[in-house]
């Protein structure tokens, strides 16, 4: 059903009890709704934020930005970007991290996970006709999720100015 990404993001942030102070959420004022399963999308984004917190220093913040992408007005999208200030992901591993049980060697430590999180996220996002990718950045890791938005709600948010 039609959901607000802002509401979803607040629910995700709430799940990180002690780490919440490291999370900085930025949302645009007028965002279109998305037609999704709220609980599944929450889980998909949770996995990405969990990584950002886990694979970057405890004294560094994680920035989450939610934006509207309506380049051609025919395929409105909402993007959710999670940016950390950790060691980042090498370009040659940017696809592999979304595979089942994949873990970058440098992180094979006691606190590294099972390598399931991003594979689950990718499956959930794909099931919603969205995309998830690691975007090359100078510092840290940037994961971008794009979800198709509901057209009608975009038209409403823009004052109904859609032919
Ligand atoms: P799980 O999420 O199942 O507990 P995991 O975190 O190891 O385990 P994924 O979330 O799928 O698995 O991530 C896969 C691998 O990608 C991680 O093990 C890590 O090596 C790398 N990775 C993911 N996110 C980041 C990040 N923000 N910075 C650096 N490396 C990352
Ligand atoms: Mg993980």
UniProtKB/TrEMBL annotation:
Q: Where is the signal peptide?
A: none
Q: Which GO terms describe its molecular function?
A: ATP binding; phosphorelay sensor kinase activity
Cite the Histidine kinase domain residue spans from the record: 1-151
Q: Which UniProt keywords apply?
A: ATP-binding, Kinase, Membrane, Nucleotide-binding, Phosphoprotein, Transferase, Transmembrane, Transmembrane helix, Two-component regulatory system
CC terms in the record's Gene Ontology section = plasma membrane
Task: Point out the coiled-coil segments of this chain.
Answer: none
* Entry superkingdom: Bacteria
Compartments in which it is found: Membrane
By what name is this protein known?
histidine kinase
Organism for this UniProt entry = Marinomonas arctica
Shown part of the complete sequence: 193 to 355 of 355
């Amino acid at each position: 059903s039609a959901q607000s990404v802002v509401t979803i993001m607040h629910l995700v942030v709430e799940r990180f009890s002690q780490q919440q102070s490291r999370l900085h959420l930025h949302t645009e004022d007028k965002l279109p709704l998305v037609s999704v399963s709220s609980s599944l999308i929450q889980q998909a984004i949770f996995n990405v934020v969990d990584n950002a917190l886990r694979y970057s220093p405890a004294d560094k913040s994680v920035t989450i930005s939610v934006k509207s992408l309506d380049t051609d007005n025919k395929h409105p999208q909402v993007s959710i970007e999670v940016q950390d200030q950790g060691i980042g992901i090498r370009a040659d591993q940017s696809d592999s991290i979304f595979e089942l049980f994949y873990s970058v060697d440098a992180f094979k430590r006691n606190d590294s996970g099972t390598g399931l999180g991003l594979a689950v996220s990718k499956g959930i996002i794909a099931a919603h006709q969205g995309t998830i990718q690691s975007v090359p950045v100078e510092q840290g890791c940037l994961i971008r999720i794009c979800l198709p938005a509901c057209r009608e709600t975009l038209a409403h948010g823009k004052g109904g100015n859609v032919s």
